[in-house]
């Protein structure tokens, strides 16, 4: 299991549920195709699971 993960926003949040928009913003994803590196912990995994249709996850 990797120590960090790369999360990329691949789908627009227009029309998304407001709670999902806030989750994506909290992950640090503000624009389409933006990639951020996050720690691979339970909190990150849970947030990514909630917004799975909007993001792509890769292990670093």
What are the key terms here?
globular, 2 helices, alpha+beta, 3-stranded antiparallel sheet
The gist of it:
With 60 residues, the chain is of the alpha+beta class. It contains two helices and three strands, in the order E-H-E-H-E.
Give the topology:
Blueprint: E1 4-9, H1 18-26, E2 35-39, H2 42-50, E3 55-59
Structure explained in plain terms:
- With about 60 residues, this protein is of the alpha+beta class.
- It is built from two helices and three strands.
- Strands 2-1-3 form a three-stranded antiparallel β-sheet, with no helix packed on it.
- The longest helix has 9 residues.
- The protein is globular and about 35 Å long.
- The chain starts with a strand and ends with a strand.
- The model has no long low-confidence stretch (mean pLDDT about 95).
Morphology: globular
H-E string: EHEHE
Report how far the terminal alpha carbons are from each other.
Answer: 10 Å
Q: What's the β-strand tally?
A: 3
Reported for the largest beta sheet, the result is:
3 strands, antiparallel
Strand order of the largest sheet: 2-1-3
Q: What ranges have pLDDT less than 50 throughout 5 or more consecutive residues?
A: none
Number of helices: 2
Structural class: alpha+beta
Oligomerization category of the chains in this entry: single chain
Radius of gyration: 11 Å
Strand percent estimate = 25-35%
Helix content: 25-40%
Mean pLDDT across the residues is 96
């Amino acid at each position: 299991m990797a120590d960090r993960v790369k999360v990329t926003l691949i789908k627009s949040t227009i029309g998304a549920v407001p709670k999902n928009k806030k989750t994506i913003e909290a992950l640090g994803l503000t624009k389409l195709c933006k990639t951020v590196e996050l720690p691979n912990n339970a909190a990150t995994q849970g947030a990514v699971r909630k917004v799975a249709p909007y993001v792509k996850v890769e292990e670093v």
